[in-house]
Design brief:
The structure holds 2 protein chains of 2 kinds. Chain A has helices spanning 16-28, 31-49, 54-63, 67-78, 83-94, 97-108, 119-124, 127-136, 142-173, 176-197, 201-219, 225-247. By secondary structure, chain A is an all-alpha fold. Chain A folds into 2 domains: 16-186, no CATH class; 198-248. In chain A, helix 2 packs parallel to helix 4, helix 2 crosses helix 10 and helix 5 runs parallel beside helix 12. The radius of gyration of chain A is 20 Å and the shape is globular. Chain B has a domain at 1-34. Chain B is built from 4 helices and no strands. Chain B has helices spanning 3-31, 41-63, 74-90, 95-113. Classes of the chains: A mainly alpha, B mainly alpha. At the A-B interface, helix 2, helix 3, helix 4, helix 5 and helix 6 of A face helix 1, helix 2, helix 3 and helix 4 of B.
Chain lengths: 248, 115
């Protein structure tokens, strides 16, 4: 009989700290470590470019902890969008966190789990942590999952904070072309990773519509252009998807 | 505004426009974490909205560049993004290949054509 792959060697009742550090180690040795490092170097350069303090970026990485929301927040505020428009765009980008939390928490909830034990994992929920948690948690016994998940998340968040500073101070001291290349890292990595995540027709269509509608609405100076890009592009893609399903 | 408030203001904005509008969805997920799966219609729709919004932001960052990136001509920025995307598709959907090729194209194009 084949055993499922386990993230940890089998031990008798490892301590909470041991589970936490196992999660931390798993974060620092995963492919997402590189993805996050690159993303947050770009984000640091972006924050520097728009004149935000370095600590502001670090705190936003801890509190917001969602790279898309942070890019939206920095570029919206940096280009002079109203606070209301920035908040609206952030909340629209954050809706996707809701189903992610809903899918993750049942994996963490055991017989004796209190809701407050789930507060941190809920806050830590973001794409990198979510993908790895869904892959690794089912291989662990229930009582080890929450500390492992917290360790994993702290590893990713620490990576984001550290490389945010790296990008920020690199952008400050580099020649213009190198700084431009660092700044290009954010749109480039988001373009590719969003395309990569869009594996079914509805997401691909939403992706293409967003690429076209975003600049179009902005060019014609339509108010709340980010919100309309999301709502119009996403809803159109969804309707086409429903229509095609109905035809089948 | 007094100086202390001026210095704190970016952090107040961070809480109001960044933290709270984002966190509300996580808390809602924590409260309502039952009975929804990846295929429910509301989940499909919300993912499509978020995808379109993010794609829009990316296109705006490339087309209406800011700061140091404005020194690289628009055609180079768009060309580099397209080359990166082609590399991503050509190398079995490798995100790494796409980003490296796009960045290299911007660096080389910027070196040759910057003003």
């Amino acid at each position: 009989m084949s055993e499922p792959m386990s993230a940890l060697p089998p031990e008798a009742e490892p301590s909470t700290a041991a589970n936490f550090f196992a999660g931390l180690k798993s974060a620092l040795t995963s492919v997402f470590f590189l993805v996050l490092a690159g993303t947050y170097i770009g984000m640091g350069a972006l924050a520097h470019d728009f004149g935000f303090p370095a600590w502001w970026l670090a705190i936003s990485s801890i509190l917001v902890w969602a790279a898309p929301a942070q890019v939206i927040l920095i570029s919206a505020l940096g280009t002079g969008a109203s606070l209301f428009e920035a908040a609206l765009a952030v909340t629209l980008s954050g809706i996707r966190l809701f189903p992610m939390v809903v899918a993750l928490l049942p994996l963490l909830r055991g017989p004796g789990t209190r809701t407050r034990d789930l507060l941190l994992p809920a806050h830590f929920t973001a794409v990198s942590m979510w993908v790895e948690s869904l892959r690794l948690l089912p291989t662990l016994p229930h009582q080890r999952r929450i500390p492992f998940c917290n360790g994993l998340s702290v590893g990713y968040m620490g990576t984001a904070v550290v490389f945010g500073f790296v990008g920020y101070y690199l952008a400050a001291g580099l020649p213009v072309l190198m700084a431009a290349t660092l700044l290009f890292l954010t749109p480039m990595s988001f373009l590719i990773s969003t395309a990569n995540n869009a594996r079914i027709m509805v997401d691909r269509l939403a992706f293409v519509l967003g690429l076209v509608l975003g600049p179009t609405f902005a060019y014609f100076a339509i108010g709340l252009d980010l919100m309309w890009t999301g709502l119009v592009g996403g809803t159109l893609a969804y309707l086409v998807h429903r229509f095609r399903e109905a035809l089948q | 505004m007094n100086p202390a408030l001026t210095e704190l203001w970016p952090y107040v904005v961070l809480i109001l426009c960044g933290f709270l509008p984002n966190e509300v969805w996580r808390l809602l997920g924590l409260v309502l974490a039952r009975g929804l799966n990846e295929d429910s219609q509301i989940v499909v729709w919300s993912r499509a909205v978020a995808t379109a919004l993010l794609a829009g932001v990316v296109a705006k960052l490339i087309l209406f560049a800011n700061g140091a990136l404005t020194t690289v001509p628009l055609s180079v920025r768009v060309g580099a993004a397209i080359l990166g995307f082609v590399a991503f598709a050509a190398f079995k959907r490798s995100v790494f290949a796409g980003v490296v090729v796009g960045e290299a194209a911007l660096l080389i194009g910027g070196y040759l054509f910057s003003h």
